[in-house]
Fold this sequence. Notes:
This protein has 5 helices and 9 strands; from the N terminus they run αααααβββββββββ. It has helices spanning 3-15, 19-26, 32-38, 46-55, 60-63, and strands at 83-89, 104-111, 118-121, 136-141, 150-155, 158-167, 170-174, 184-187, 194-204. Strand 6 and strand 7 (170-174) form a beta hairpin.
Amino acid sequence: MSELSHRILQRRLELGLSQEELAQRMGYRSKSSITKLEKGINDIPQSKVEEFAAALETTPAWLMGLENAVSAPPPGFEPLPEMVRVPLVGSIACGTPITAEQNIECYIGVPAAWHADFALTCHGNSMAPTICDGDIVCIRRQPEVEQGEIAAVRIGDEATLKHFHRQGDTVMLLADNAAVCPPMIYAGPQLNEIQIEGRAVGFCRGL
């Protein structure tokens, strides 16, 4: 039995698939083709390796013995996404950039697909139930956001997470929980007090 045949058998059993089920995934009419491949009776064409990898939820490199670990998770588990590290910003020093060294508590891993630039820990329940006290909210840095999006808005030496609305020369920052935090309204010279740091693109919540 070749390494490739052995790994096809191993991975099929790990996934709990029968030979018939793998045959169906591969588009074969019967399990006999799978039986012969797993026993090493028939060779597997290079062109079929990628199809087997997809059917077995792994990579061609693993099937050919070039990787030690199977990239796919066990049945019922979601694969971990590609992760990147971003700074978790704590108390913000007035007048300094939000990701200045003195503002950074640590670096955390977040999904790369979020394209986040930094993260903030939410304090209070003004955005509950969407965002709760203690949630870590990931922010993509951008100077403007669409109407109604959740933005990280800097007010002096504080950063707040609110729905951003602009009507003419008036900006309203709205909480999900109005009973806890009434609308924050800025107009005229007051607009100089606020600065959009970015848009909320995801959050992490502990169990």
